């Protein structure tokens, strides 16, 4: 179905009332993640996969210029997308389920992983968060997180990264591993059960498997 210009694919649970995972991603990603997730966990879930996103705009918390030659600037319109997601899209998604989910999970990869963390500070709708290879190189994100409290402290939080993602010539993106490790420790220190998984490879290695493992962890926690 199309909601407010975004495509939403709904993959139902086996049993009514299972947790609902909301995954921001690319077209077709939802089916691949749902299949991988069913192989990864015995936990039941429903999955709503949202695509048709303007990644550099909808998923970024504040504007930044292009981070490399040929890249697009980021418009920083995450607040507007959070309002759209929670105020218009989520009610329609929930109306398509046979029962109220036990809880909601927000999940994403790359900029969508960054968005999943940022959303904790702008909405209380999500009980658990899965950020796989999140773009935690984003300027000022560490300071923002350290100086703000989540509207709702999540039950648990999963972070991951490829062990080669920090090995880049781009000085901004080079910070991603240090920032991810720092934030994992920060969240643990404030009492949020937090996993950090380092995966072999770079940013584009096995995104489906990484996303499935991230969601499985928060479902099983």
Overview of the structural elements:
Helices cover 35% and strands 19% of the residues. The protein has 221 residues and is of the alpha/beta class. The protein has one domain (2-220): Rossmann fold (3-Layer(aba) Sandwich), CATH 3.40.50.1820. Strands 1-2-4-3-5-6-7-8 form an 8-stranded mixed sheet, with helices on both faces. Helix 1 (29-40) links the parallel strand 3 (20-24) and strand 4 (46-51). The longest helix is centred in the middle third of the chain and has 18 residues, at 78-95. The two termini are 31 Å apart.
Describe the structure concisely for a colleague.
The protein has 221 residues and is α/β, with parallel strands linked by helices. The protein has a single domain (2-220), classed as Alpha/Beta hydrolase fold, catalytic domain (Rossmann fold, 3-Layer(aba) Sandwich), CATH 3.40.50. Helices cover 35% and strands 19% of the residues.
């Amino acid at each position: 179905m199309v909601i407010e210009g975004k495509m939403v694919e709904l993959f139902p649970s086996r049993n009514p009332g299972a947790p609902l995972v909301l995954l921001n991603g690319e077209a077709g990603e939802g089916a691949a993640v749902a299949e991988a997730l069913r192989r990864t966990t015995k936990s039941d879930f429903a999955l709503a996969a949202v695509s048709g996103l303007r990644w550099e705009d909808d998923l970024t918390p504040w504007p930044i210029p292009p981070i490399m030659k040929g890249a697009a600037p980021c418009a920083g319109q995450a607040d507007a997308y959070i309002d759209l997601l929670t105020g218009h899209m989520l009610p329609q998604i929930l109306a398509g389920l046979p029962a109220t989910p036990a809880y909601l999970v927000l999940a994403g990869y790359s900029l969508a992983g960054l968005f999943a963390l940022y959303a904790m500070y702008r909405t209380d709708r999500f009980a658990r968060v899965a950020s796989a290879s999140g773009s935690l190189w984003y300027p000022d994100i560490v300071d923002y997180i350290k100086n703000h409290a989540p509207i709702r402290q999540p039950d648990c939080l999963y972070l991951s990264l490829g062990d080669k993602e920090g090995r880049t010539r781009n000085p901004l993106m080079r910070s991603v591993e240090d920032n991810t490790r720092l934030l994992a420790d920060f969240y643990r220190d404030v009492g949020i059960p937090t996993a950090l998984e380092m995966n072999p490879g770079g940013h584009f290695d096995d995104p489906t498997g990484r996303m499935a493992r991230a969601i499985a962890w928060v479902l099983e926690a």
